[in-house]
Write a structure and sequence with these properties.
The structure is a single chain. The chain has 12 helices and 13 strands. By secondary structure, the protein is an alpha+beta fold. The protein has 2 domains: about 10-255, Sandwich (Immunoglobulin-like), CATH 2.60.40; about 275-405, Alpha Horseshoe (Leucine-rich Repeat Variant), CATH 1.25.10. Strands 1, 2, 3, 4, 5, 6, 7, 8, 9, 10, 11, 12 and 13 form a 13-stranded mixed sheet that branches. Strand 9 (about 170-180) and strand 10 (about 180-190) form a beta hairpin. The radius of gyration is 23 Å and the shape is globular.
């Protein structure tokens, strides 16, 4: 994004945010009604006095829900974001550029929050009830959670997805993949919050933004598909309790008029991202050769495994090599997931070996694969796991696999 001109007050807030981990208060500057068009372009977001908060988890101090068995945090390219906030008389607006080197969400309409997503939490209660109890999160319309799945993280949601969209009339979003991540722009009507609808001059609400990161297809075990999550405010379970949100000041001043600014042109996604989504995109022979030689980066390898699976070209040698303990967890989990999707009975010996893997998620995926392949030869081994595996999640999955194999 182009440089943003900021006032001294805003600069101080921004600096405090970077130094202390998160700001004590965020600001959404007031803009004229209808100024923002939700199209993923940032013309309206540059050249003015926007508060811009950079969620840069370079020291991992903004991360929560960390599951290292899905992979280690590796810096800003792995997960970071810049977020701008605004409001007019009718809506809240959010514009974000998210850096995420592997985009994937393997979930369903029921649980999209178990993969890559962009979540917004807003508490629109009256000032005396802001940041209330956990009970208020589940029973009152003035507290809302919005879960947006970025476009093409899963091709069944080519243009993106809003969880429980029927409950949120008027909400708009536009997202698109770019090189190394995605852009997302959001509009949320204030009228969704009864108190704000009745008290349009209220100048403070609660807010937080959480960005989930998966980095490998498939989901399993604790917090099924999440490797890590990044939050703008407090490190807490926002979906459970509005008390964990950060104050958002709805500034009354309007942006000064600025000259028309040309929006940022974001580079297209990497080739392997496109190939992993579109089977009609041919994969060059030299790239396949580099893959076989183990010369691709981690994100490229994950996308290549997905691309081969999409084309039915994933073989036994691939799972043996890329599910190996020498590979990073993101690659290993992808290899096992893609192998299971092939429904190839010749792979059952490999899955049996993976039942002894030190990574609980690999073990779970191997159990699921063997049950789906109806490998009754693995029953005794799975019975042993159901009794003695050190992880309760694995034991539970072993019991499910046994019932399936035994026809119960």
């Amino acid at each position: 994004m182009n440089p943003v001109k900021v006032m001294t007050r805003i600069f101080c807030l921004y600096t405090a945010f970077l130094l202390s981990g998160f700001a004590a208060e965020f600001t959404a500057l007031r803009i004229p009604d209808g100024k923002v068009i939700v199209d993923g372009n940032d013309e309206e977001w540059i050249g003015g006095n926007f508060d811009q908060y950079t969620i840069a988890a370079l020291s991992a101090d903004r991360l929560t829900y960390i599951y290292k068995d899905r992979g280690e945090f590796s810096g800003a390219a792995d997960l970071s974001a810049s977020v701008s906030l605004a409001n007019d008389s009718k809506n809240f607006y959010i514009f974000a550029i998210v850096k995420d080197d592997i985009l994937v969400n393997s979930t369903s309409d029921e649980n999209p929050y178990e993969g890559d997503d962009f979540e917004v939490f807003i508490d629109g209660h009256s000032p005396d009830k802001l940041f209330g109890s956990a009970a208020m999160a589940n029973t009152v319309e003035n507290y809302r959670q919005f879960v947006f799945v970025p476009a093409q993280t899963n091709m069944k949601w080519k243009t993106g997805f809003l969880w429980k969209a029927d409950s949120f009339p008027g909400v708009e979003s536009f997202s698109k993949p770019i090189k190394g991540g995605y852009v997302i722009e959001i509009k949320i009507p204030k009228a969704l919050f009864p108190n704000l609808r009745d008290n349009p001059k209220q100048d403070r609400v609660g807010i937080d933004i959480m960005i989930n990161d998966s980095d490998a297809p498939g989901y399993d075990g604790p917090h099924n598909g999440i490797k890590q999550s990044l939050v703008m405010g407090k490190l807490a379970a926002h979906f459970q309790n509005p008390a964990n949100l950060t104050p958002l000041l709805l500034a009354k001043e309007y942006l000064p008029k600025t000259m028309k600014v040309k929006g940022t042109v974001h580079p297209e996604p990497d080739f392997m991202f496109i190939a992993s989504r579109d089977s009609s995109t041919p994969i060059p022979a030299d790239l396949k050769k580099s893959f076989k030689a183990g010369l691709l980066s981690k994100p490229e390898t994950v996308y290549m495994l997905m691309a081969l699976g999409l084309r039915g070209e994933f073989g036994k040698s691939d799972i043996v090599k890329y599910a190996n303990l020498t590979q990073p967890p993101e690659v290993r989990l992808t290899a096992v997931t893609i192998a299971a999707e092939q429904k190839d009975k010749s792979l059952t010996p490999v899955f049996r070996e993976l039942l002894m893997d030190p990574n609980l998620r690999v073990r779970i995926r191997a159990l699921i694969a063997l049950s789906e392949l109806r490998d009754k030869g693995a029953i005794s081994l799975i019975e042993e796991i159901s009794k003695n595996d050190p992880e309760s999640y694995v034991k539970s999955e072993a019991v499910i696999a046994l019932k399936k194999l035994q026809g119960k």
